[in-house]
Amino acid sequence: MKYVVRRLWQFVPTLAGVVLLVFFLFNWVGGDPAYILAGKIANPELIENIRRSLGVDQPYWVQLWIFVRQVATGDFGVSWATNERVSQIFATRLGPSLTVLLPLLITSTLLAMAAAMLVAYWRGSLTDRAIMIGCTVGQSISILVYILVFQYVLAYQLGWFPVQGWGGTLGENLLRYGALPVLVGVVVALAPDIRLYRSFFLDEINQDYVRTARAKGLAEGRVMWLHVLRNAAIPIATNVMIQIPGLLAGAFLIERFFSIPGIGREVILAVERSDFPVIKAVTIYVAIATMIINLAADLLYKALDPRVELE
Amino acid sequence: MSLWRLAWRRFCRDRVGIVSAAIVLAYVLLAAASAAGWVARDWSNEVGVSYAPPGFLGRDTVQEGLGEVIKAQPRADYGIPDPLGAELADIHANVSGASGRDTRAKTLAFGGDKWGRDVVQKAIKGTETSLVVGLAAAVLATFLGTLFGAAAGYRGGWVDDFFNWLYSVFTSIPYLLLVLAVAAVLDQKGILTVILILGLTGWTGIFRLIRAEYLKHRVREYVLAADAIGASNARRVFVHILPNVSHVVLVQLSLHVVLFIKSEVILSFLGFGVGVDTVSWGSMLAEAPSELILGMWWQIAAATAAMALAVTAFSLFTDAVRDALDPRLA
């Protein structure tokens, strides 16, 4: 408990840093947003009005204060492109993102664990080496190619899936529209995950307790599924946890190609339209989520492995 | 025997490492030749017809007579001679393929793009762009990471606190989101911009490793001995410790080349990367969706093959270098 409180206190300087970094980027490097907002037919009067309403005619410390207040209240104003409230954008985009991400995360983790356990058990064999080479080659192909080829072959040519789109009900989204995006995501995630998890399994397989378990006559299946799997699952669980925030924003390519109205697609749209309030809000929210999830990952690690001492 | 000669000897025994090193070297030479203008200099020339198919497929794969659509129309000129008439007639004749002067090839070695540019030349030029971006950004990120890591690990105290704080700030924002945010703010395309974006955001992993190495080395006897004979701080950091952690730096440099090549491809694909007058693997892939619908697969195939081979070779090369430099891991 004391540990949690102390970690929560450590959030403060980090979050302050993120706020400063975002402020520095958007208010200092980014130039005058009034010119972006006023568009092509700008007159000085209009620009002056926009500058006043945004507060960019104020000194930097006043602007910083405005931004800090936005972060504290969670009210980032309205999108410059659509005039939608930024908080409203998030509330409506989170659902579709999670509809794709959760099945993706669960499927890819289970498949990668199974494959990693197999190749770690047969380490050095032809199967192991073939799968490892396959992973290296698979990892070297850009995610863009996977998306393009899968969408073209499976959806456009064979017609097994809708090419893109999003429906109204959860079941329809999950089974009809979400299936191909999840499939692509799983294929992309498998190669690096198998490599990483294989190293986790190898770490455990060479431990003394495995030899002991074998020496006392336990079946191989029991040794692998009970003893080794449980121990290797600890770093895997942590690894899955810390992947989540990156996935939330990082699935933007998948969301963009399959027209899924999620957070990732919103980020791309915002960058294309120079929609600063949305990008700022995403960055701050995802940073907060990252910090919370990292803390949760540490606590989970402690819960799974009582030997770990949190300091 | 020096560390480097031992590592070289171990490296030579690694057959996969030798092959991948040869491929990496070939790519670097190709990129250098392209930069010097020896190959793929005329990549932007429209040498073939639009969507010229690869030579081995034959010319029947695309509908003949795309030019028919743009046949010369009879125009009323009210008796005034058209000042551009001669040129226009020339263009029409060229487009419809009626004149014998059409020099544009009907097929190209590995096909052409929408404007009839040779895909092989584009892939070579793209190799140059992607390698330059990957290498330069990796050098920048490695330089920053090493400098920050050395300062934090060696000095400790408030310097360490400051860089740790910076590290936690940068790592609490997912990498691609940070890259996109910086791209949105800079809002200008170009090779230099991409290098800066990737280099300035990508130093965190190297920083953590180098900091840990300096923490470890700072209290070793050889550093204390250097202190005793009066070596300055800068001399201890850069002359005494740095060579002993340089294998970490080298491996990280190589790893980040791969990471940045992949990131550049995504950035250019989304249109936030290199400019329109430059070709990279990412901008080649960006043309692929509309081509695939028409059944033109050669450009995506060329870009994917060039990138997959380069990245695989670089990854295996990195593994081989790491094994050679740090045999305990093997």
Description:
The complex is a heterodimer of chains A (311) and B (330). Chain A is globular, with a radius of gyration of 24 Å. By secondary structure, chain A is mostly helical. Chain A has helices spanning 2-29, 33-38, 44-54, 60-73, 86-121, 126-140, 143-157, 170-177, 179-205, 208-215, 220-250, 252-257, 263-272, 276-304. Chain A starts with a helix and ends in a 7-residue tail after the last helix. Mean pLDDT of chain B is 79; it is low at 63-72. Chain B folds into 2 domains: 9-43 and 117-329, Orthogonal Bundle (MetI-like fold); 59-106, no CATH class. With 330 residues, chain B is an all-alpha fold. The chains are: A mainly alpha (311), B mainly alpha (330). At the A-B interface, helix 1, helix 6, helix 7, helix 11 and helix 13 of A face helix 5, helix 6, helix 10, helix 11 and helix 12 of B.
* Largest interface: pair, residues per side: A-B, 45 and 46 residues
Summarize model confidence as the mean pLDDT of chain B.
Answer: 79
Q: Specify the helix fraction band of chain B.
A: 55-70%
> How many domains is the backbone of chain B divided into?
2
Strand content of chain A: under 5%
Give a brief outline of the structure.
Chain A is an all-alpha fold. Chain A is 78% helix and 0% strand. The radius of gyration of chain A is 24 Å and the shape is globular.
What's the topology here?
The complex is a heterodimer of chains A (311) and B (330).
Chain A: H1 2-29, H2 33-38, H3 44-54, H4 60-73, H5 86-121, H6 126-140, H7 143-157, H8 170-177, H9 179-205, H10 208-215, H11 220-250, H12 252-257, H13 263-272, H14 276-304
Chain B: H1 3-13, H2 15-36, H3 85-96, H4 119-155, H5 157-171, H6 175-186, H7 191-201, H8 204-218, H9 221-228, H10 233-270, H11 281-286, H12 288-293, H13 298-325
Helix pairs in contact in B: 1-13, 2-4, 2-13, 4-5, 4-7, 4-8, 4-10, 4-13, 6-7, 8-10, 9-10, 10-13
